UniProtKB/TrEMBL annotation:
SUPFAM superfamilies: L domain-like (SSF52058), RNI-like (SSF52047). Residues 1-22 form the signal peptide. Its main location: membrane. It is a single-pass type I membrane protein. It comes from Quercus lobata. InterPro entries: Leu-rich_rpt, Leu-rich_rpt_typical-subtyp, LRR_dom_sf, LRR_N_plant-typ, LRR_R13L4/SHOC2-like, RLP23-like. Residues 200-411 form the Disease resistance R13L4/SHOC-2-like LRR domain. Keywords: Cell membrane, Glycoprotein, Leucine-rich repeat, Membrane, Receptor, Repeat, Signal, Transmembrane, Transmembrane helix. This is Leucine-rich repeat-containing N-terminal plant-type domain-containing protein. It is found in: Cell membrane. Residues 40-78 form the Leucine-rich repeat-containing N-terminal plant-type domain.
Amino acid sequence: MGASLATHHVLFLVWFLPVAFSLSFFFFKAESISNVSCNEKDKQALLTLKRGLTDHGHVLSSWSDHKDCCIWDGVFCDKKIGRVSELHLNNSGLGGEISSSLLQLEHVNYLDLSGNDFNGTLIPTFLGSMYSLTLLDLTSANFSGLIPHQLGNLSSLRHLSLWNNSDLYVDNLRWMSGLSAIQHLDLSDADLHREVDWLQIMSKFPSLSELYLHYCHLDSLNPSLGFVNFTSLRVLDLSGNHFNHEIPNWFSNLSSSLLELYLTNSSLKGNIPPSIFNLEKLELLDLGLNSLNGPIPSSIGNLSRITSLYLDQNQLNGTIPKNLGLLSKLKTLYVGKNSLTGTVDERHFQKLSKLKDLYMSEAPLFFNVNSNWVPPFQLDRASMNSIKIGPNFPSWLQSQRSLRFLEMSMSGISGKAPGWFWNWTSNITVINLSNNHIECDVSDILLSSTVKLLNIANNSFYGPISTFLCQKKIRKNKLEVLDASNNLLSGELSHCWKYWQSLIHLNLGSNNLVGRIPYSMGALVNLQSLHLQSNSIYGYIPSSLKKCSNLWFIDMGDNHLSVIPLWIGELTNLIVLRLRSSEFKGYIPQQICQLSSLRVLDLANNSLSGSIPNCLKNISAMALPNFNIISFSSMSFIYSYIYGSYVENVHLVPKEKEMEYEENILLVRLIDLSSNNLSGSIPTEISDLSELRFLNLSRNHLMGKIPEKIGSMKELESVDLSQNHLSGEIPSSMSNLTFLSLLDLSYNNLSGRIPSSTQLQSFDALRYIGNPQLCGDPLPKSCTIEEQSLNRSPIGSVEDDSKNSSFYIGMGVGFATSFWAICGALFFNRTWRHAYFRFADEIKDWIFVTTMIKMNYWKR
């Protein structure tokens, strides 16, 4: 027993000692390696680099001469040799000049400067001498100019990314032949149009697996080429170019390894070649946003590995092939916004058990499935706007427990919404059932706390609005968009708005709401747009709304309100203010002029009195071109979410016809004060609104002249000043309004000749009727010589006035000078005075004698 134990100890020592020695050696070596500090030459090179860079974010604060550079932020070393091997300086807020000291970093193989701002400088040519580089990433670093040919010297480079530097360009790509090891190449957003042989050059890289050339101004895929082959290509992105021809047949032989092909938004046209579906390894195919037509080829069934298929926003027609339902790995299917017709039924989804994202909107399809159909998939998104689903409510939705985005607007659904609909899933974020014929008591709506957008506009939802707003079960809601306009909602606006403070857009227009606007609406501090139009709301607009300082859109038209509040000027972000037909009385407050961003001021058809404020010229958005355009574009005119959008809309009357404006409201600049009791003159300062497009002051009691400088408002498309008491001539400067397509000056007291211009003579005579003293084309009344003289030529009329004024002033001064010079001489010089009067007497006698002789002659 003891001998056996001793034997075991000996064996253990024989095993343990070598192992222990090996481990000790390993840890000693590891410790010695970890203690290797960076090379002094590398440190000094990096410090020189730092001195040339601007570092507003202090990212390089750790780069100090007193520290080991291998522990500096963004610096990585090869610890075997103690040399810097990688620089990760991406998204560091750096700028300035990149020093050539980088060349001293002989072992750097990884250089990432992406996400910085080098202020449009050139890419340094010396980067092409950093021969150890395997990765060079200059993405989104604000470089510009010619991509240096020297980069072609980097024969070890495997990854080159220059995308999102929009001012880069190439004169040719032949220099790229030296990039023999390249695997990932991204030149997106650079201008490559000067190189016509780009395709042949790119196809010669034996190791290239990912090629990204989106938005590179390429204009041809060389359809005449019979064969193009990329040996190792797995990803090809040519989206956003301008090919303007059919998809070439050579795509079918492009690469046996191709997994992803992006041709979206590339001006492609013609039919989809069936051969493109021979790329059987494809996992993603994006042909969206082109002008492709014809049917979807049935060979689409060959794409057995496809997971994402985008054919949306083309002109495809015919029916959807049923073998689409055999693509068992499909997760994303976009076929919307086409001209596809026919029926979509269960067979189209037969094996699509992995489908998550379905986009079929805006195609004249009929979704016809059995009422007890249970889909094989669990959708995350169902976007099915403007395809026929109804009349019955789609019961298959009840099985979609993971659904987050539901869009079924204009789908022909009618009848009562089933009770299960409002609580069948706890994940729903977006619900859009607008423009159907759905009936539902709003008290039955139980919103999940996850819902951010609810659009039930243009349906038959009914009941008191307060029964929905004040439910205890939805007081913790996160709703940002609520559109319940054009329904049958009734009752007063509740005082429960404190539970809805996440709201950004609220539209309750065109219902049967009554009562006052509650003070509690001031709690909606995040609100950007408020629509209460076309109800029976009365009284004052509460001052609490001035707390909603983010408001840029107010529509309270067609109600029974009282006065425009003075605090309206505090809503300085307002862009659209529509208060027409709401029985407003009193004056237009001067504070409206504080709304410098205002583009639409519609106060028409009220009982407003007093004069038009002179300060309207202070509305900068109507006076200055491109005023605050960046801020406007950031406004939520379109409320975007991950898979869709909610678009604001407003009804205006720019040219005597009501029109609906959506995101194009940014293009409108309108003042409509028509059908009020306004008096006084049109302020001359209104001529300073040089960006105004639509001006309507008709049906008021305005007097005086049309502002002489109205012709400086060169963007005007419509001017209606009819049915006032305006007098004087039509300003000759109006002939300068070249965009004018509607003019109405009828029923005033205007006089004189209608100025000559292409526009003014092109309008119907009815546009000038009711001005008895007007003459000239297009009126049948011709002008007399006296009337013609009333109007001067529009060209140089102001200059002529100035010259005439100078002439008359000069003549008056000359007359006065001469008169007093002569009279003064006669007064002070007696001899001259006697001679002058003798001369006057002789002239008088001569006139008398001559006149008598002539009279006697005529008598005979």
